[in-house]
């Protein structure tokens, strides 16, 4: 079972790299580029929308949301583009993944605002 999960994770990583290159390809339709950019940016982001330290929910995005997003993105991209990007993805997987610090910063900002709002609400409740 552990090997099966490991293979699934490797496949997911490969699909993210395929989407990364499909986004950059001029033959990809604009709507697929937009959606793919969002999925890839989230996947490469150093910070999750739901932090992993939150029990059960922390892994929800990694196990459910991200694969669904990848699946939809792969369906939007023409097959010939995906075939070309698969070759590039194999090469890229050997070198490591890029990071999207802009999206990471946005996610940190959103979480910071939520925490600040929560602290203000608690402070006003006790005063």
Automatic annotation (TrEMBL):
Where it mainly occurs, coarsely classed, is membrane
Annotated Gene Ontology cellular components are:
endomembrane system
Q: Which UniProt keywords apply?
A: Membrane, Transmembrane, Transmembrane helix
Give the bilayer topology: Multi-pass membrane protein
Q: Where are the transmembrane segments?
A: 30-47, 53-74, 101-120
**Where is this protein found?**
Endomembrane system
Pfam families per the record? DUF1232
Domain named DUF1232 is located at 33-67
Protein known as: YkvA family protein
Organismal lineage: Bacteria, Bacillati, Bacillota, Bacilli, Bacillales
């Amino acid at each position: 079972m552990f090997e099966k999960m490991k293979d699934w994770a490797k496949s997911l990583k490969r699909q993210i790299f395929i989407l990364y290159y499909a986004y950059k390809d001029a033959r990809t339709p604009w709507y697929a580029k937009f959606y793919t950019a969002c999925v890839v940016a989230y996947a490469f982001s150093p910070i999750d929308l739901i932090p992993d330290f939150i029990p059960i929910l922390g892994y929800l995005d990694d196990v459910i949301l991200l694969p669904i997003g990848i699946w939809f993105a792969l369906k939007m991209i023409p097959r010939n583009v995906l075939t070309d990007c698969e070759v590039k993805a194999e090469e890229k997987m050997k070198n490591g993944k890029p990071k999207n610090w802009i999206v990471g910063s946005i996610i940190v900002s959103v979480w910071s605002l939520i925490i600040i709002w929560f602290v203000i609400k608690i402070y006003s409740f006790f005063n």
